[in-house]
């Protein structure tokens, strides 16, 4: 298990692994928004939590098809399926590796990007907290989507179409938590809902992912 | 550990390709599968390895005794030869990879990225992976593709050593490996007759 995690992290950091791609995409989205809506800082600070969440979500989406497709192409997925590792464990580790190389860097870089959108002062902590709690769900749901589309040539677009609707609850409560935090309102309810969604998908989806992966490998 | 197959019918894309297969593989023996392209050798090996369920019949053998090697080697281009082998050794709970490296003459390549190897060298690395699995039954699909004569000899030596140690091997190959322990099993006569639509096959429409 640990060796699979280390291998996936190594592959992500080495050339061609796609690490940093999501981060660069996130930066470009946040830089483009002021060009689109104008440099009005009152308006920007109002929409900043939502834009940052949307940017993080799209950046996360960008790397989803690498989670399983690369292993399927070079045959290592077949070999992993016949190895002593349970497939449920394999997909969990894959989600974790994806989160460590995408969700976590996005979370840590978010305050910097919040500055670009003149996020209100009290909002930074809540923005980081909401991303920290919400992005694991994005990786786990994304792995499920990747398992559904593994084996389909250029299934990236189909993957996005399947996964984006499933991201809606996380986006709603994540952005709501960041917005309420920025405006100094009560944050308990969206935080609990966001954490509930994350823990729920972490508990259930690996089993579903392993199941569809088994069917897809036939 | 005996691998035995009883009245097995296997399907590819929902269509039966081979039926009524019966064979047993004893420790210390190798079984070489022969048959024309498309007859279903790969499908048979995938079924034996537990990657797909048989339509009828059964495979008697715990899946955790089987080491499967497919057409593709499952190598990561951006990991070195040692890192690739070390990873599979860790997955299968083995410690020593030096025996596998020397058996397939990979010492000189140990620190090279797998992506920079030639096709034959990659195949040798893929076959070396079998040695770090520590599993008794090898299920091999065309293991000698892109190997030169010397490497084929190297591979035959590795199989011979594995059989001597009480292991067994099920190999689909077209060339003669020169193994005296090997029986040849021609799957050609077991081609499935065309059948009416299978009950329970309705979900194939969605795949």
From TrEMBL, chain A:
<keyword id="KW-0201">Cytochrome c-type biogenesis</keyword>
<comment type="function">
    <text>Required for the export of heme to the periplasm for the biogenesis of c-type cytochromes.</text>
</comment>
<feature type="transmembrane region" description="Helical">
    <location>
        <begin position="47"/>
        <end position="64"/>
    </location>
</feature>
<dbReference type="GO" id="GO:0005886">
    <property type="term" value="C:plasma membrane"/>
</dbReference>
<comment type="similarity">
    <text>Belongs to the CcmB/CycW/HelB family.</text>
</comment>
<feature type="transmembrane region" description="Helical">
    <location>
        <begin position="123"/>
        <end position="150"/>
    </location>
</feature>
<feature type="transmembrane region" description="Helical">
    <location>
        <begin position="157"/>
        <end position="178"/>
    </location>
</feature>
<keyword id="KW-0997">Cell inner membrane</keyword>
<keyword id="KW-1003">Cell membrane</keyword>
<protein>
    <recommendedName>
        <fullName>Heme exporter protein B</fullName>
    </recommendedName>
</protein>
<feature type="transmembrane region" description="Helical">
    <location>
        <begin position="12"/>
        <end position="35"/>
    </location>
</feature>
<dbReference type="GO" id="GO:0015232">
    <property type="term" value="F:heme transmembrane transporter activity"/>
</dbReference>
<dbReference type="GO" id="GO:0017004">
    <property type="term" value="P:cytochrome complex assembly"/>
</dbReference>
<keyword id="KW-0472">Membrane</keyword>
<feature type="transmembrane region" description="Helical">
    <location>
        <begin position="190"/>
        <end position="213"/>
    </location>
</feature>
<dbReference type="InterPro" id="IPR003544">
    <property type="entry name" value="Cyt_c_biogenesis_CcmB"/>
</dbReference>
<keyword id="KW-0812">Transmembrane</keyword>
<feature type="transmembrane region" description="Helical">
    <location>
        <begin position="96"/>
        <end position="117"/>
    </location>
</feature>
<keyword id="KW-0813">Transport</keyword>
<dbReference type="GO" id="GO:1903607">
    <property type="term" value="P:cytochrome c biosynthetic process"/>
</dbReference>
<dbReference type="Pfam" id="PF03379">
    <property type="entry name" value="CcmB"/>
</dbReference>
<keyword id="KW-1133">Transmembrane helix</keyword>
UniProtKB/TrEMBL annotation, chain B:
<keyword id="KW-0201">Cytochrome c-type biogenesis</keyword>
<dbReference type="Pfam" id="PF00005">
    <property type="entry name" value="ABC_tran"/>
</dbReference>
<dbReference type="GO" id="GO:0017004">
    <property type="term" value="P:cytochrome complex assembly"/>
</dbReference>
<keyword id="KW-0472">Membrane</keyword>
<dbReference type="InterPro" id="IPR005895">
    <property type="entry name" value="ABC_transptr_haem_export_CcmA"/>
</dbReference>
<keyword id="KW-0813">Transport</keyword>
<feature type="domain" description="ABC transporter">
    <location>
        <begin position="3"/>
        <end position="206"/>
    </location>
</feature>
<dbReference type="InterPro" id="IPR017871">
    <property type="entry name" value="ABC_transporter-like_CS"/>
</dbReference>
<dbReference type="GO" id="GO:0005524">
    <property type="term" value="F:ATP binding"/>
</dbReference>
<keyword id="KW-0547">Nucleotide-binding</keyword>
<dbReference type="GO" id="GO:0016887">
    <property type="term" value="F:ATP hydrolysis activity"/>
</dbReference>
<keyword id="KW-0067">ATP-binding</keyword>
<dbReference type="GO" id="GO:0022857">
    <property type="term" value="F:transmembrane transporter activity"/>
</dbReference>
<dbReference type="InterPro" id="IPR003439">
    <property type="entry name" value="ABC_transporter-like_ATP-bd"/>
</dbReference>
<protein>
    <submittedName>
        <fullName>Heme exporter protein A</fullName>
    </submittedName>
</protein>
<dbReference type="InterPro" id="IPR027417">
    <property type="entry name" value="P-loop_NTPase"/>
</dbReference>
<keyword id="KW-1278">Translocase</keyword>
<dbReference type="InterPro" id="IPR003593">
    <property type="entry name" value="AAA+_ATPase"/>
</dbReference>
